[in-house]
Amino acid sequence: MRGEQETVRINRYLAQCGVASRRHAEDLIRQGRVRINGEVVAGLGARVRPGVDVVEVDGRVVVPEDERVVVLLNKPRGVVTTAQDDRGRPTVVELVDLPQRLFPVGRLDIDTEGALLLTNDGDLAFRLAHPRFGVEKVYHAVLDRPISAEDLEHLQRGVMIDSGMTSPCRARTLGDPRRVEVVLHEGKKRQVRKMFRALGYQVVELRRVAIGPIELGSLPPGKWRLLSAEEIRALRREVGLEVKPEESAA
Ligand code: URA
Prior knowledge:
Blueprint: E1 8-9, H1 10-16, H2 22-30, E2 34-36, E3 39-40, E4 47-48, E5 55-57, E6 60-62, E7 70-75, H3 92-95, E8 103-104, E9 113-119, H4 122-129, E10 137-143, H5 149-157, E11 160-161, E12 164-165, E13 170-174, E14 176-184, H6 191-198, E15 203-211, E16 214-215, E17 224-226, H7 229-238, H8 245-248
Helix pairs in contact: 1-2
Uracil binds next to helix 6.
């Protein structure tokens, strides 16, 4: 067990982020351009808890180049879930301005918006995307017409789509019978759209609002944020990854 959370001086931390030399970092601090957790850094003695505190320079989040990070992006419609697109369409990776080489966890199709995780942590990404670990994903769909109670039942029992029968899932209407919440533990290609299509409905809007314990909340489309140490712990627990000592010492 480790005791206190390790901290580093802010100027050293900024140098590790590749932002500036330690000397130049001091200038940035004096100029009031550096914030820790939203507060302007007042003195050169300020310290940072790596992986816990959010540090910004001129309003941009900075992170040490070798740190493992997990980002929650609200993927907008029209953006593809790949690192590169040979047709030149905008990609989710281009929306996240961090020095790490991040890759998306699973996929959202081009017309779907909402919660998408990106990370440089291969183990975590693999488990989150793998159906064996059954991480719950919550979708909100808007349909072309109201769903009947019978079809809602049918959806939950499982429907036949091109890749086979879907597993039992939870579904409920959200006040209006054209708006349906679907909770899946699997992620076949365009699964939600295909499930509704199999029952004769068109999905006119689709948004993923949660992945396991991580909720999209009010993050606007196209925006991203770093997950906190606590959120990363919750995700790791969800997929049975050991909680590491440095992650449990908050
Ligand atoms: N289901 C879909 O139809 N599309 C997605 O992007 C995700 C789930």
